Amino acid sequence: MTPARKPHKRLAANRKALRDYHVLERFEAGIALRGTEVKSARAGHVSLAGAYGRAEPDGITLHGMTIQPYEHGNRFNHEPDRPRRLLLHKREIDHLSAQVEQKGCALVPLNVYLKKGLVKVEIGLCRGKTHGDKRETMKRKTAQREAERAMAERRRR
């Protein structure tokens, strides 16, 4: 019998990413943090608005993710908007770098969460949606919502 999986504590989510992009693949990555960044992240002071990943020669770097300074920190507190290195296997880095260069995809962080006491980032290999794709998604969600309402109303009778 397998033990029940403990849900991860979500620290931040990038809901706009799912609206603006088609997610082709998802990867779980560790993130290299300094000093008081972990304490601030555990308190939930993380923002993914406008964050993106960039493939660089030494690995994948996350830009635009904001971790607010720790309120009980001292003069050695961290910078909120500094680029942070993602911790991935070499083959994952090579795969992501190739996909970004060839297909014109983007690396977008989807979630930041705690897993076994470590801060993890779920990063997606994404392709941008067109205006028509966004409309289609909205129509599909509206139709699904109306169907669920009709079924709930039918059950009540």
In short:
The protein is of the alpha+beta class.
Record the SSE blueprint.
Layout: E1 9-13, H1 15-20, E2 21-31, H2 37-42, E3 46-47, E4 52-56, E5 59-63, E6 66-67, E7 84-87, H3 90-103, E8 106-115, E9 118-128, H4 131-156
Antiparallel strand pairs: 1-8, 2-7, 2-9, 3-6, 4-5, 5-7, 8-9
Describe the structure.
- With 157 residues, the protein is α+β, with helices and mostly antiparallel strands.
- It contains four helices and nine strands.
- Strand 8 and strand 9 (118-128) form a beta hairpin.
- The protein is globular and about 65 Å long.
Q: Based on helices, strands and strand pairing, what is the structural class?
A: alpha+beta
User: First CA to last CA: what distance?
Assistant: 41 Å
Query: Biggest β-sheet, characterized?
Result: 7 strands, antiparallel
Level-2 CATH architecture: Beta Barrel
Q: Any idea what the radius of gyration is?
A: 19 Å
The CATH topology annotation reads as Small Protein B, Chain: A
- Tally of separate domains: 1
**Run of helices and strands:** EHEHEEEEEHEEH
E-strand count? 9
Per DSSP, the total helix count is 4
Give the overall shape: globular
Major β-sheet strand ordering:
1-8-9-2-7-5-4
Quick tags:
single chain; 157 residues; alpha+beta; Small Protein B, Chain: A; two-stranded antiparallel sheet
